[in-house]
Every structure is written in C-alpha cells, then in structure tokens.
Amino acid sequence: MPELPEMETYRKLLSERLSGKEISRVTINREKSINLESKSFISKVQGARVEAIHRRAKHLIFKLSTGDSLLLHLMLGGWMYVGSENDQPKRTKQVILSFGEMELYFIGLRLGYLHLLSEVELEKELADLGPEPLNGHLSYTAWQDLIGDKRGRLKTTLLDQQFIAGIGNCYSDEICYGARLMPTKQADTLDEAMQKDLYEAIQSVLQRALGFGGYMDQPLYKGDTFTGGYNKHCFVYDREGETCERCGGTICFEEVSSRKCFYCPGCQRE
Ligand SMILES: [Zn+2]
User: Fold this and answer.
1) Whether this model's pTM surpasses 0.85
2) How many angstroms is it from 48 CA to the middle of ligand 1?
C-alpha cells in the first residue's frame, strides 16, 4: 500500500501536470469506487478546475474550483497513470479524469476510493488522523509527549494512523531498522535516547525515500524514471535472507500481529 513518500511523490508530480487545469470529462467504470451515483458525481466534477493537490497521511486531496474536494485513498493495489488515448496502461481503469487530451487513470481501486466531499465533510473524514511526521509538523517536544505514554509494539504503533500519519508496512520496518530497534520492542520500554533515535529515524527514512521517489512499481507517466527509485534502496523491507549493510547479519522475516515484518537481529535492539 502506498505510504507517505509514494503519495507525496504523486502529489508533487501531479501538481506539476494538473494544477489549474479543467476536468473536461469524467468516466466512471466502477461506481463502488466513488461515493455518489455516477450521474451526480460527473455533473459535480466535470467542468471544475483542479486548483491544488494536497496530501494528508496516505490520502491525496484534489481541491476543486467549486469548493469541493476529491479525496483519494489508493489502499492495497491502487495506482495512477497520466497519459492519453495512445499512451495508457492496458489495464481496467475504475475512474478516468480527462483534461483535454491528457488523462488521469485510476487503476486497481478495489478497496481504494475517490470520494467527492464538501469542505465540512472532508474535515470530518480526516479529523482522527495523527500528526504529519515531516516539514516541522511534529516537533521533538510534541513527539516526546506522543511516545511517552504509548503502549504496544513499535511496528503496530508506527502503523497506527491516529498516532502518526502516513507510515505503513514498509516504512515502519525501515524506520525501526534506522533507529536500531526491534519492531517487536514495546514502545513503553524505550529510554530517552531510544525515543530520540526513533524520532530521527522517522524523519531521515521518510526524507530519504522521498528523495528516491518512493517504492511504487509503475511509473506515473511515459519516461518517468523518478517514481519507484526507493525499491533498490530498502534496508530491510522485502529483503529476507539478504545481508544487512550495517552489520553483515542476515535479514529475517516474521509476522507481527499478522503484518509482514522484516528486521536484522544482528543490529536492532530488543
Ligand atoms: Zn544488521
């Protein structure tokens, strides 16, 4: 499932292409992916301009000139492509937004969705999310308050969107590795130095992943060599049996609370 670095990469690249552009046509091939009847959704979105694209946690928010927003969550298996009739993936598109000849395809939306919401509805939808970890939204003092009375394993703690926003299965493992802490370690057993290590790892791992364009398998547009660069730079995620770059140990895999979990037992502290 795309996480903060993947969605932020999408936000940046889509903003460059779509900001200020008018949605000339809307095609709905799967009504379950939207929250209104197709006819009503189309009449409210067609003709609107995309004024800006924001990200909150793992969501993208397309701000429309009508005052409404399109709230996107790709969930597991969802992805996007910007192309045209002659340049598009041969896959089923659940929703298509056309901008003249240029089109934005939403693919693999099974659990994922694109919902049209008013400002009030949008605010309500995002109200329970925890703080954004980057760009000064989470100060070290705020982090200490947050982690100070948290219980549970680090893996599940980092995945909890109400605790901190935007981190999923891959980056929770990468962050624990970065902090030299086992993902199974209990959050309330961290001493102050470990709390600081975890805070710094959250920032540095996510920034590094952003720099490499996240881990999505598919490019966003023809010739896109940026998206997905992080796949080659994972420390532990999906690297079971491979050698740890830091200590030379062997990377292990286990399931923690039925989530995939990768770590190095040689250099991550119990
Ligand atoms: Zn190691």
Assistant:
1) yes
2) 52
In terms of C-beta distances under 8 Å and separation of at least 24 residues, what long-range contacts does 191-196 make, across chains too?
Answer: 194/269, 195/143, 195/144, 195/147, 195/148, 196/140
Looking at the fold, whether 51 and 115 belong to one and the same domain comes out as yes
What residues does the ion ligand 1 have nearby, CB within 5 Å? 244, 246-247, 249, 264, 266-267
CATH number at residue 96: 3.20.190.10
Alpha carbon distance 220, 121 (integer Å): 29
**One domain for residues 171 and 95:** no
Question: Would you please indicate which residues are annotated as catalytic (active-site) residues?
Answer: 2-3, 58, 259
Domain boundary among 73, 92, 126: 126
Angle between helices 140-148 and 192-211 (to 10 degrees): 120
Task: Write out pLDDT tens, residues 129-175.
Answer: 999 999 899 999 999 999 998 999 999 999 999 999 999 999 999 99
In angstroms, what is the span from residue 251 Cα to ligand 1's centroid? 7
249 and 173 co-located in one domain: yes
Residues 155 and 105 in one domain: no
- Token look-up 């023809």 returns 222
Distance in Å, CA 75 to ligand 1 centroid: 31
CA distance 175 to 103: 36
Q: 144 with 259, same domain? A: yes
Residues 6+ apart with CB under 8 A from 58: 1, 2, 3, 4, 7, 73, 74, 161, 165, 166, 168
The CATH number of residue 249's host domain is: 1.10.8.50
C-alpha distances out from residue 123 to 41, 49, 59, 69, 187, Å: 19, 21, 13, 11, 30
Q: Which domain holds residue 246?
A: 140-263
